[in-house]
């Protein structure tokens, strides 16, 4: 049950605060065409819908087009064909569609970073490890599609088709690996998390708490403050109603030991100023700049050397793609924590957004808007219903 539905069940209205490349290869052994059966009895269609970046811009609606009648791709020998049932929205979807991940990328190209769904077909080598009808999740390009070809090496078997598992693929692993590798968390450390109520922030809060740290989180509404308290945040700060710099100065005069920083710009500057002696700031992102032409958010770079030297403090950049050797351990640990009831994986389907739940590829555009309006609590997920199972 989501945080918002818990509140709704308790009769608390939320309306007041919510205004509203992998190229497929041909099958080597065609006897494996037997795998091309829908496990639920219906034929796999020959065509599908998918989102494609057709223009390089950070304006997602201008960059990306919903295409219909596209051939369903054929998995190669080591690939799975996955019918996507839930796909995750990430802040960097707009960086990707702007070509910032790969400056040599020329449109058209597929978009979407992660999905969970059923294997509906697979190549011979892939069938050594996976079977038709198996639920898998993956982090690989091209998930904003009804069907995606996923290299088997990129697929993670999942116990069931739950959207909560999807929250771990990018958002959970980012928090887990960055804090483990760069955070040096020990009992009693003070940790500041920005964008704390979002997809990855929610995990940074919980993992820091589990490391017995004192955790401070910034967010933009009282509803998010409530959510942050519910997942153990010691000092949520609604930056719309409280001055973050003043709160930190007054309540944490010695500074904070670790910052998990996702916003950039002024929030980055004040986070650097708030570091304790020997503190460290992990650069997770700078979302406040992603919608601009450069994708950057200006910071006080000139003052940085002195600010860091005076405190023997450090800046540490983190990019998940550079930590793939640590990925499997992170996923297994997070899945176990969730299964054991030690981790909340908050999903936001946009139920309270003006046009309701994010359902179908068409709603990916609304879901990206919703994130950039700062409305989400937890990970934004879009459901791609499948007509056969939705009747069950
Ligand atoms: N380095 C990596 O490998 C990696 C991997 C995954 C994500 N990330 C980064 O983590 C950050 C969060 O990403 P996410 O996908 O989990 O998103 P998210 O946190 O679910 O959503 C973004 C949140 O950022 C906050 N925000 C603050 N200022 C904003 C602005 N000017 N425009 C839009 N949002 C603003 C909003 O919450 P409040 O305003 O309430 O705080 C919003 O809800 C991003 O910087 C992203 O690039 C990095």
UniProtKB/TrEMBL annotation:
<dbReference type="Pfam" id="PF08240">
    <property type="entry name" value="ADH_N"/>
</dbReference>
<dbReference type="GO" id="GO:0047522">
    <property type="term" value="F:15-oxoprostaglandin 13-reductase [NAD(P)+] activity"/>
</dbReference>
<keyword id="KW-0560">Oxidoreductase</keyword>
<dbReference type="InterPro" id="IPR013154">
    <property type="entry name" value="ADH-like_N"/>
</dbReference>
<protein>
    <recommendedName>
        <fullName>15-oxoprostaglandin 13-reductase</fullName>
        <ecNumber>1.3.1.48</ecNumber>
    </recommendedName>
</protein>
<dbReference type="InterPro" id="IPR013149">
    <property type="entry name" value="ADH-like_C"/>
</dbReference>
<comment type="similarity">
    <text>Belongs to the zinc-containing alcohol dehydrogenase family. Quinone oxidoreductase subfamily.</text>
</comment>
<dbReference type="InterPro" id="IPR051397">
    <property type="entry name" value="Zn-ADH-like_protein"/>
</dbReference>
<feature type="domain" description="Enoyl reductase (ER)">
    <location>
        <begin position="59"/>
        <end position="382"/>
    </location>
</feature>
<dbReference type="GO" id="GO:0005739">
    <property type="term" value="C:mitochondrion"/>
</dbReference>
<dbReference type="InterPro" id="IPR011032">
    <property type="entry name" value="GroES-like_sf"/>
</dbReference>
<dbReference type="Pfam" id="PF00107">
    <property type="entry name" value="ADH_zinc_N"/>
</dbReference>
<dbReference type="InterPro" id="IPR020843">
    <property type="entry name" value="ER"/>
</dbReference>
<dbReference type="InterPro" id="IPR036291">
    <property type="entry name" value="NAD(P)-bd_dom_sf"/>
</dbReference>
